[in-house]
Amino acid sequence: MAERNLDFDKVINRKNTDCIKYDFAQTFGMPEDVLPFWVADMDFEVSSYIEDALAARVRHGIFGYSDCSAHYFNAVQGWMKKHHNWEPQEEWLIKTPGIVFALAMAVKAYTRQGDGVLIQPPVYYPFSKVVADNGRRVVENPLYLGEDNRYHIDFADFEQKITAEKISLFFLCNPHNPVGRVWTKEELTRLGDICVKHNVVVVSDEIHHDFIWSGVHEVFANIKKEYEEISMTCTSPSKTFNIAGLQISNIFIPNSTLRQKFQRELDAAGTSHVGVMGLTACEAAYKNGDEWYQAMCAYVRDNVAFVKQYVEERLAGVTMIETEGTYLVWLDFRATGLSAEELDRRIIHEAKLWFDSGEIFGDSGKGFQRINAACPRSVLNEGLERLRVVVQ
How many Å from the N-terminal Cα to the C-terminal Cα in the chain? Predict the structure, then answer.
């Protein structure tokens, strides 16, 4: 059976499908007619293998409490081994409805009220939210933008913050959202050695690990045995295969003590099962979705290159930060001379575009915007054309 859904140029109308990206503009305070490039899902049909697996499950007609068997784990492990040279063990796996939920549970499991949790802004905004909402302190080790147009880690500040703030938990974003870094083995080793030295648990959000345009994705837990013992690796097929609405994530915790602490928080939250459709889609994706995945990546890689060329040739005062991974593009508008507030006003109300304003990722994100390039090329071009008019 051949893959059917390989036309990524096809524009699919997602309006009136209860789609957060397209149907809830006014709920989020946006004009009803904005063109959205904000939330991180793709405007592509999923693999036909996922469609067929879900359809077969629907035809069965019974949707009772469900869990997974060995064939599910074999599909997950097979994907990790093939694409990331990593062989997680079955006993390490805990399934959750999503990674943000898992981050919140990790905060509860590995820290106490008032403790500091270390993050590296500008970073995915739920990182700080789940820390603050659970009564912990957000401690920042800001990334800095180098002359090579890439973000880098301030390792001295990283270790200083750990000691000064008595940090026991660090949220690593690998690859990094929104700045697009694919951390090297050397960089992760420097971080890891510091965390081992100071007994810091590392929660590594690796949800974008299948979108690598430059370099190689290194699974943090796979670099050294010592890192395996202090790590919780968060993965999901949701970004890779565009199934975020099915709410399935695979969380790997090799250390049995850390795993038991995490499981206790899940039990306390009343979470015992994930949805059967998420399980079905995940297994189908990892077992049969490689052709779709490879074709999608080629298309998105070209989209990222298209944005880069457009910005360089047609958007004076705007710089695209080098995108090594993810389908999220980080644009620097500071040289336009527009304030962050005026920039947001023009983008939203004049261009009728919905981006993610940089400041939601931390103070260091002011003057930046994050846009999602995982859409048909024609839609991406329309967005950039609208942006060009208001920037100029």
Answer: 50
The neighbour count for residue 148, using CB atoms within 10 Å, is: 8
Residue partners of 377: CB distance under 8 A and separation at least 6: 9, 302, 303, 306
Of all residues in the chain, the percent with pLDDT exceeding 70 is 100
DSSP state of 156: H
Sequence-distant (6+) residues with CB within 8 A of 268 are 108
Both tokens assigned to 107: 């905060």
Q: Which helix H or strand E contains 115, and what residues bound it?
A: none
Q: What is the pLDDT of residues 49-95, one digit of tens each?
A: 999 999 999 999 999 999 988 999 999 999 999 999 999 999 999 99
At 98, is the secondary structure helix, strand, or coil? coil
| Tokens linked to 207 | 């949800």
> Is it the case that residue 1 has pLDDT exceeding 90?
no
Please compute the mean of the pLDDT values over residues 289-293 and round it to a whole number: 98
In order of their start, the domains of the chain are 20-45+290-391 (3.90.1150.10), 52-288 (3.40.640.10)
Runs of H (alpha helix) within 289-328? 290-314
With residues binned 3-state (H G I as helix, E B as strand, rest as coil), the percentages for the chain, rounded to 5, are 45, 15, 40
Chain centroid, CA 48 distance in Å: 23
What strand order describes the sheet that includes 368-372?
319-320, 328-332, 368-372, 356-357
Q: pTM (2 decimals)? A: 0.97
pLDDT of 322: 98
**Residue 23 class from Cβ within 10 Å (0-12 exposed, 13-18 middle, 19+ buried)?**
middle
Q: Are 156 and 128 in contact (CB under 8 A)?
A: no
Rounded Cα distance between 306 and 347, Å, is 20
Classify residue 274 by its DSSP letter: -
The pLDDT of residue 68: 87
